[in-house]
Amino acid sequence: MIEDRPISRHTREVEFEREDLAPQPIFIFLIALALGCVLVYFILKGMYSYLDAYENRQQPPPGPLVEQPRSDTRTVVPGDITRFPQPRLESDERLEINDFRLQEENKLHSYGWVNQQAGVVRIPIDRAMQLLAQRGLPTRPQAGVVPASDVNTAREAAQRADTSRQPEKQK
Fold first, then answer.
1. What is the pLDDT along the chain (171 residues), one digit of tens a residue?
2. pTM for this entry
């Protein structure tokens, strides 16, 4: 049902909504949040400093034969490198990888012993590829197949060439 209301001839001026949030409380909140973060940082820093000092006080004194550690254990002097177990961290990655690649290239392109007692040698890769192209890959016979031999090859050739048992063709 439609109500009959009198239409007002007086209209209000168009304005923005007064119930919006003003910028001042937002800035106050952000400043308070930043101050709270700084306060928490200093509280945690003080707490950890206290706990570290407490832990150091509770440590028993080291024995007289114990080597005193350096104050800064993050720096490594050259004499300490040999004391670290293998594998060690690389000190110069580019130089070490280049040396490694050079050694691998030398192995690929030179002759040498792999196992001298067993008589196993290494040959250059180019020569190995030539030999492989000439000789082919080694294969093993399949199960149930007679391996090829001179005798079997000659016998098969003779059977194919034998025409005495075949009926004569009619012309």
1. 555 555 555 566 766 666 777 889 999 999 999 999 999 999 999 999 999 999 989 988 878 887 776 666 677 777 777 777 778 777 788 888 999 999 999 999 999 998 989 988 999 999 999 988 888 887 776 676 666 666 677 777 777 777 776 665 554
2. 0.32
- Do the beta carbons of residue 88 and residue 94 sit within 8 Å? no
Three-state SS for 20-89 is CCCHHHHHHHHHHHHHHHHHHHHHHHHHHHHHHHHHHHHCCCCCCCCCCCCCCCCCCCHHHHCCCCCCCC
Contacts of 164 (CB under 8 A, 6+ apart): none
C-alpha span between 133 and 70 (Å, rounded): 63
For residue 114, what are the contacts with CB-CB under 8 A and spacing of at least 6? 120, 121, 122
Cα distances from 56 to residues 45, 50, 53, 65, 136, in angstroms, run 17, 10, 5, 20, 73
Helix/strand/coil for 18: coil
Identify whether 87 is preceded by a cis peptide bond (ω within 30 of 0). Answer: yes
